[in-house]
Amino acid sequence: MNPAARKIQRVYLTLTLGNTLAASFIWGINTLFLLDAGLSNFEAFAANAFFTAGMVLFEVPTGVVADGWGRRTSFLLGTVTLAGSTYLYYLLWQWKAPFWSWAVVSVLLGLGFTFFSGAVEAWLVDALRFSGYSDDLEAVFGRGQMVSGAATLVGSAAGGALAQATSLGVPFLVRVGVLVAMFGVAFWLMHDVGFTPDRSSRPLAATRAVLAASIDNGLKNPPVRFVMLAAPFSVGVGFYAFYALQPYLLELYGDPRAYTVAGLAAALVAGSQIAGGWMAPVIRRLVRKRTTVLIVSTAVSSLILIAVGFTRVFWVALVLLAVWALIAAAGTPVRQAYLNDMIPSKQRATVLSFDSLMGSTGGIVVQPLLGRTADVYGYPLSLAVGGVVELLAVPFLLASRRRRSPADEASATSDKAV
């Protein structure tokens, strides 16, 4: 990696570290926070569904912001929006607000995250290519996931301990403070390199044009389309499982107020992310096709989730959770590299946002349905059902494999969409 590419990677890892640290302060206690505010399981996961609905609504418009006004602009807008909506969440908890207000603010939280999704990844790939980097993308994405895992490890454990020592609302205030700091860091370090924003069109015309191009390079491109169609099942179940495991593990542990345990469980997932990020480029060197990694990781993680639903022993569930997270984490950088090698630069942020939109669509449906299953039949059955739902992603990944895209076996990045 040449000095210019190494500098781009450092900025990317810095942004990933700060963003993930800010977000992860509440990941270990978010479901407990919502339940403490007076929401039922169904309402808590419905609030999460409204969050994902916000991501669906705003993915494409914010992708247009990234492609039309710059990836740096999109990132800065994301920090401001997410900080403001997180503070509103804290106020709703204090006020024991009705469900409709949680739904509204959850949509705003989704808006905040859509400014990030696609923009940072697109900024990284274009800047690396401009700097002359020609090695596998899995290596950089793997490092990013390792940094993200480390930040989650620290943030989620600290958030759980902080909630235990103070209250469930304090980690949300810490998140606001870190996001404000990240605005200053991004303003100073992040500049669009290897990409020139196109501001010639009016906003609505630009939205239509970029959306049309994104569909052409996304849903109308068969190998990309099938990867996107798999996302609602795997992402939707992943969202639910991560948050449902918090109260479920406390249930197995026997102390519903052991918030530190919930934070440590999220930290365990983070540790698995670190290991998975390290494993991804190693696995990629051993496995010829990227789709092989995606198919196997999805199928095995689904079966493990089913097994988690049938265990009644806390430590066994904890080990299964770690293995589930490790396998999913090892496949994530490979999926990112596979998609990016099939997407042209000009619409990269919007197509990646569209991919995120597909995953969020699954979250809108899957989370409240599985939350309702937990209300009626308990967390174990809801997790087992989630594992079965995730298996539905495998046929779509097999369909992408059958299209024999050159990106499936690519060993280095290419400047062309293939």
Give the helices and strands, then pairings:
Elements lengths: L2 H22 L5 H7 L4 H29 L1 H25 L3 H16 L4 H12 L6 H29 L4 H20 L13 H15 L4 H32 L5 H28 L3 H21 L3 H27 L7 H30 L1 H12 L3 H9 L16
Describe this structure in words.
With 418 residues, the chain is mainly α. Helices cover 80% and strands 0% of the residues. The chain is globular and about 55 Å long. The relative contact order is 0.17.
Condensed summary:
This protein is mostly helical. 80% of the residues lie in helices and 0% in strands.
Strand fraction: under 5%
For the terminal residues, how far apart are their CA atoms? Answer: 24 Å
Q: Choose one word for the global shape.
A: globular
State Rg: 20 Å
Number of helices, where a helix is a run of at least 4 consecutive DSSP H or I residues: 16
Segments where pLDDT lies below 50 for 5+ residues?
A: 412-418
Arithmetic mean of pLDDT: 87
How many beta-strand runs?
A: 0
Order of helices and strands: HHHHHHHHHHHHHHHH
Q: What structural category do the secondary elements indicate?
A: mainly alpha
* Helical residue percent band: over 70%
Major sheet, described briefly? Answer: none
